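User: Sequence for Alkyl transferase below. Tokens please.
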Amino acid sequence: MEKSVIGASQRLGGLGTFLRKCMFSVVSVGPIPEHIAFIMDGNRRYAKRRNLPVAEGHKAGYLALMSILRYCYELGVKYVTVYAFSIDNFKRRPEEVQTLMDLLQEKIEVLLEKESIVNQYGIRVYFIGNLKLLNEPVRVAAEKAMKATANNSKAVLLICVAYTSCDEIVHAVQESCNEKRNEIQALKGTKVSNGVIYGVEKGEMINGVMECDVHKSCNGSLDGEAALDTSKPCSERDEAVEKENTTVNHVEKDKGDEVASRICNGLIEDVQENEKLLHKIPNVKLVDVEKHLYMAVAPDPDIMIRTSGETRLSNFLLWQTSNCPLYSPAALWPELGLWHLVWAVLNFQRNHYYLEKKRKQM
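Assistant: Structure tokens for Alkyl transferase:
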């Protein structure tokens, strides 16, 4: 009896796969989105409606994700991005956060199994976000998964964890500024900045002024070192200093004036040189920021799908979705099925010409 049930189940599964492929063949007559992003909303509500623990809702959400990934890759979508865990989610109850981290670590390890969907479809996995905020076991598992799938090229799965779009943009701007600062330092190559001399080797010339001359001017002694003998009493030292100053005063005055003049001239020359370099200084441009975004490894999404009927982006891919249609079915994430995906793709195809036209105008 059990064998017959298993056999019937396999036949139904095979029939379902055949019908799905036939439907995808029809849908593929139109343009297929290259990249679909999902905000997986509704796991907790799904559990609450069924009087289940919150953890069971998240587990049901994982199963729904595996089904949706299979549908997307069979349809020909190359990039899939999922919003798995926001930086703001760290504010939830500690026990729920820990449950999510444990579940995430467990499912990352499942993705690396030989029979997993990752190996079936040749998927490369990226974990997107501020990974330093994750606990060590999860971070190590994520890095291991990225390394293990680095040679896969048929499809891409981007899992956003410890992510918000604001954090991504701030990170990109900081990296762009650091890059430009290094370029400016390499371009300028000067040792004088705002009148402060730094990073100078002994005996090095600074705009025509010897390093030792600068120290002579600063210390008031001919040998560039303090001329005080601390082994003598204060009164004797004062007399010695006064006597020495008297004997060398006229020499020091002339020398000091000369050094001061040379330093001033050097600073003026440095300012003039800076003005000449102003037009050469590289500025931070749009392309620089985009290059340093976490999501730079993938094209912008063609469709954004948020479940549970919500239309908020919740700080997700704000930079990348300026021309991306939002589809928000009423179904909670664990309830999302094949027909929701097909309907989203059909809507994309209906508006494809208009969206492409808008993108070209940007």
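The beta strands are 35-39, 79-86, 123-128, 155-163, 192-193, 196-197, 205-206, 209-210, 303-306, 326-327.
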